[in-house]
């Protein structure tokens, strides 16, 4: 793996004694999309703030493209674009001037063609001369993204980028992320909108109460932890699952009117179950199957940790 970002033993404890982040060890590969999932207050923003040099870690090191993020801050930070949760722009400045100024802050020379392309990709080109205070909330969010991309970073952090925005912007964001990744940009996304990670991520990390619970490739995670459910609507309710069906993981729902079969790809035996129902004379009216989403897996992981 060509590592572009390395996090070793990074933790954060504030002066008040609050431990916001347990020691984290994590490597991010060049060109991947990594989604960091967790509920509000889980430590996602703290970790990103440390990587971007906004917050000083209590322990550990962060290395960006071979640069120590504390000892060689400027070189490390120049490689990073950050889209924060909060709006942090001059409301009386124009869109174009704001994005150009952000590029200059990172020591980059003028590149009008790049700035125009970024604004066009974000549907902001027609608004380039508008003052930011005149824009809608969604358009202001797009300006934050344009600022983060202005200096052509190799790593882009999206911290809850679509929180509180409309569906159209969310879809536009997904398209832009795929385009950036195709151009070689490494993207780290924090979100509690699980469908964003399911749509975009190569790997998924789950964080809760400041601790990384799991890091796994999305496809492998969904195969390993994802479960499928089949709902069998019975012709006549049952009071209990017959002993002859003990070989299947079955339960009754809807006051015995529905038979629930839970399985994964390794132990699935739908044909055998249906054949056995026929042998036992158990009739059914309908079948419906559901596959676990990444959200189902995330909720299960957090609940298991809380119960431990």
UniProtKB/TrEMBL annotation:
Gene3D superfamilies: P-loop containing nucleotide triphosphate hydrolases. PROSITE patterns: ABC_TRANSPORTER_1, ABC_TRANSPORTER_2. SUPFAM superfamilies: P-loop containing nucleoside triphosphate hydrolases. It holds the Pfam family ABC_tran. One of its GO terms (molecular function) is ATP binding. Keywords: ATP-binding, Nucleotide-binding, Transport. It comes from the Bacteria. SMART domains: AAA. Residues 5-234 form the ABC transporter domain. This is ABC transporter ATP-binding protein. The lineage of its organism: Bacteria, Pseudomonadati, Pseudomonadota, Alphaproteobacteria, Sphingomonadales.
